[in-house]
Amino acid sequence: MPHQVKRRRTYDATKRRADALARRAAVLAAARELFLLDGFAATTVTAVAERAGVSQETVYKNFGNKPGLVRALHEDAMRGEGPVPPYRRSEDLRGHSDPYEIVRGWSLLSTEVAPRVSPLLLLLRDAAVLQPDLRGLLVELDDARHWRMSENAQFLQEGGFLREGVSARSAADLMWSATSPEMYELLVLRRAWSLDQYADHIFHSVSSLLATPDTRRLTV
């Protein structure tokens, strides 16, 4: 009888990856719920792990600590709701020839991102008052948002869309402030504005920077 060679079973990592992603999603959902319900200081890694149904070691291994959880929550929130991340859709809007349509699109994207991101940044801002070690992360995320606004402002300037006397720097600062978590807090959370009203506010604020069609310069 000929010797039969046993074939090695091919390892399928698909289920393992799916399980890991499910655990990650459960941890982030638990962390967001507890952070926003109880606050940063009162929320413990133990509580997050228990609510997510995982071990503390799993949380520490994947996220490091509570600031690591906030960072991961922020990254997850910035992906938006659809299959294409908002930042990619924001870049795609630059293909429009009408800058007012571009700004309107940016304003609508803000209503998708702000409800997901602003509560986290406000949580981090308040926690940093009592925990100075969190200020570095707060500044990092704030600077990243200003960098994105600077890219948008630079695009408007290079396209000749900004009105005379408006620099890319001042345009970036205005867009940064108009889309800030503090503005979202004041208008939506405290004054109960709808997201449509919030989008209109951003649109009118940013479009005030634009040149009218008859004064728009042509780029070379």
Keywords, please?
globular, 220 residues, Tetracycline Repressor, domain 2, Arc Repressor Mutant, subunit A
Description:
With 220 residues, the chain is mainly alpha-helical. The chain has two domains: 15-65, Homeodomain-like (Arc Repressor Mutant, subunit A, Orthogonal Bundle), CATH 1.10.10; 78-215, Orthogonal Bundle (Tetracycline Repressor, domain 2). 68% of the residues lie in helices and 0% in strands. It contains ten helices and no strands. The N and C termini lie far apart (83 Å). The relative contact order is 0.09.
- Rough outline: globular
CATH A-level architecture of the largest domain = Orthogonal Bundle
Element pattern in H and E = HHHHHHHHHH
CATH class of the largest domain: Mainly Alpha
| Radius of gyration over all CA atoms, rounded | 23 Å
Please state roughly what percent of the residues sit in beta strands, choosing from under 5%, 5-15%, 15-25%, 25-35%, 35-45% or over 45%: under 5%
Distance between the termini: 83 Å
Question: How many separate helices?
Answer: 10
Main sheet characteristics: none
- CATH fold-level assignment of the largest domain: Tetracycline Repressor, domain 2
What's the mean pLDDT score?
A: 91
Task: Report the count of strand segments.
Answer: 0
> What portion of residues is helical?
55-70%
Q: Structural class, from secondary structure content?
A: mainly alpha
Low-confidence runs: none
Structurally, the number of domains stands at 2
